[in-house]
């Protein structure tokens, strides 16, 4: 106990000398607004466009079958109705499978692109902190309030784009 008080007193007395300069960053915006991620995302959209088109076509086919079932209710034979219902069920399975595959594949590729950018931001933020004389850069999501003069998001995006231009 007798060692704790001197330690606490030393920390309290050193507090003014340990004042730290802080910057804040909207890290999510910094990542998404980087030229590299924008390019990667555009490439992903182009890569998955054919699958998206295939899914939309299957969804339209399903809607057409459902409309046909509604329009011909009571007019088709039991066999005709059963055949149309079976076709609708097969199409629904196709739509579900396409939706799941597209979502999983797109998210995996998007997450890989995000990992690359977020990993590279570590060095960029160290550089921004050094240039601005900051001891700490905190993510805005962890803060309840901060003054806008502390925000280094735009500087971080510019530094990232300079260090990692979209190729």
What is the strand and helix layout of this fold?
Layout: H1 4-14, E1 22-25, H2 27-32, H3 35-71, H4 78-132, E2 136-139, H5 153-163
Parallel strand pairs: 1-2
Helix pairs in contact: 3-4, 4-5
Structure overview:
The protein is mainly α and 167 residues long. It has a single domain (20-163), classed as Skp domain (Protein Binding, DinI Protein, Chain A, 2-Layer Sandwich), CATH 3.30.910. 72% of the residues lie in helices and 5% in strands. It contains 5 helices and 2 strands. The protein has helices spanning 4-14, 27-32, 35-71, 78-132, 153-163, and strands spanning 22-25, 136-139. The chain has a two-stranded parallel sheet with strand order 1-2. Helix 3 runs antiparallel to helix 4 (78-132) and helix 4 crosses helix 5 (153-163). The chain is elongated. The protein starts with a helix and ends with a helix. The model is unreliable at 1-15 (pLDDT under 50).
Number of domains: 1
Q: What Rg do the Cα atoms give?
A: 28 Å
What is the makeup of the main sheet?
2 strands, parallel
Q: How much strand content do the residues show?
A: under 5%
Report the principal-axis shape.
Answer: elongated
CATH classification, class level: Alpha Beta
Q: CATH superfamily, called what?
A: Skp domain
Order of helices and strands: HEHHHEH
How are the strands of the largest sheet arranged?
1-2
Oligomeric organization of the protein chains:
single chain
Residue ranges: pLDDT <50 for 5 or more in a row?
Answer: 1-15
Query: What is the annotated CATH architecture?
Result: 2-Layer Sandwich
